[in-house]
Amino acid sequence: MGAYTLRPTTDEHAAFFAGYIGRVPAGDLVTILKTQITETLARLRAVPDARGDYAYAPDKWTIREVIGHMSDVERVMSYRALWFARGDATPLPAFDENAWAPEGRFGERSLGSLVEELAALRTSTVALFDGLPELAWTRIGRASGNPLSVRAIACIIAGHERHHREILHARYGL
After folding, report:
1. How far from chain centre, in Å, is Cα 74?
2. For residues 13 and 80, is the Cβ–Cβ distance under 8 A?
3. pLDDT at res. 139
4. What does each C-alpha distance from 11 to 28, 54, 147, 164 come to in angstroms?
5. Which residue from 121, 123, 96, 106 is spatially nearest to 34, judged by alpha carbons?
6. Per-residue confidence band for 113, with pLDDT thresholds at 50, 70 and 90
7. In percent, how much of the chain has pLDDT > 70?
8. pLDDT attached to residue 154
9. pTM for the whole thing?
10. What was the pLDDT predicted at 1?
11. What whole-number distance in Å separates Cα of residue 143 and Cα of residue 31?
12. Which residues 6+ apart lie within 8 Å of 15 measured at CB?
């Protein structure tokens, strides 16, 4: 348990995830997960609730929906990491974020509650990864019909957050 710095190889994840994994800097993955969220949360906490329904184009997610999506992905990926870290070989299903977003009804919630949920999820995610024995990091399971290692999941979570922070900055002005 403790520091883990080795990155996944390409056979530990679907090609789709390479962009997220590539966004993660070198270093201890637990530390990265713990510290990178700080900037994202600071930016999101500064957004007035009235701006939460802003979308940069028709048919694009609102700020509330982006934050809700970030939480959904963090929750699903953390669950997958737990599943595989514990050595369970049962394949896990895919999830369709585009189908989930409307069902989350994120527009009915305050921006603050969505941001605090994301913060709580990251605290939980960090605790999960921080408590993993070294052997668990290299365990591989199957999700969405593809191999997926625990260490790839840690990188995907970190890279996914960074991806959406970049989008929120570039397209939403946050």
Report:
1. 4
2. no
3. 97
4. 21, 39, 7, 25
5. 123
6. very high
7. 98
8. 98
9. 0.96
10. 57
11. 25
12. none
Half-sphere exposure for 130 (CA within 13 Å, toward CB)? 11
Q: In the CATH scheme, what is the homologous superfamily, with its name and number, of domain 15-172?
A: dinb family like domain (1.20.120.450)
Lookup: tokens for 71: 């939480």
What's the mean pLDDT in 3-8? 84
- Is residue 36 within 8 Å of residue 166, measured between CB atoms? no
What's the confidence (pLDDT) of residue 129? 97
The amino acid that residue 117 corresponds to is: E
Tally of CA atoms within 13 A in the half-sphere of 103 that contains its CB = 7
- Write down the residue that tokens 């939460």 correspond to: 52
What's the residue count for the chain?
174
Helix or strand (DSSP H, E) at 76: helix 63-85
